[in-house]
Amino acid sequence: MISTHILDTNLGKPAAHVEVKLFHAETHELIATATTNQDGRVSDFGIKEFTEGAYQLEFEIAPYFSSLKVKTFFPRVCIQFFIEDINQHYHIPLLISPFAYSTYRGS
Predict the structure, then answer these.
(1) Rounded to two decimals, what is the model's pTM?
(2) CB-based contacts of 64: which residues, under 8 Å, 6+ apart?
(3) Cα(104)–Cα(107) distance, rounded to whole angstroms?
(4) Tens of pLDDT, residues 3-16
(5) Measuring CA to CA, which residue among 74, 59, 93, 69 is closest to residue 11?
(6) 10/27 Cα distance (integer angstroms)
């Protein structure tokens, strides 16, 4: 399973209503699209089967910052990661602020 969440570190709050797209990284084939909930989470993209390989999450954060009337340097964040074991849970958090972002492999 692949999941994610977004925390706005500038406000110290989850980033709700952010569109997140999941792609196969090599082919850039769109697999699924989801929107973060009130807690800034996408707990499941609704995909039942995965294969080993490279994937990419694209976070459309410009509309989020625009809704707050805040300018941002990064309109979209793209994170590529590799799935080695299809039986593991892959959680990819994103920490955002108007002029920076970071990520890590969560649990």
Answers:
(1) 0.94
(2) 8, 15, 17, 18, 96
(3) 10
(4) 999 999 999 999 99
(5) 69
(6) 34
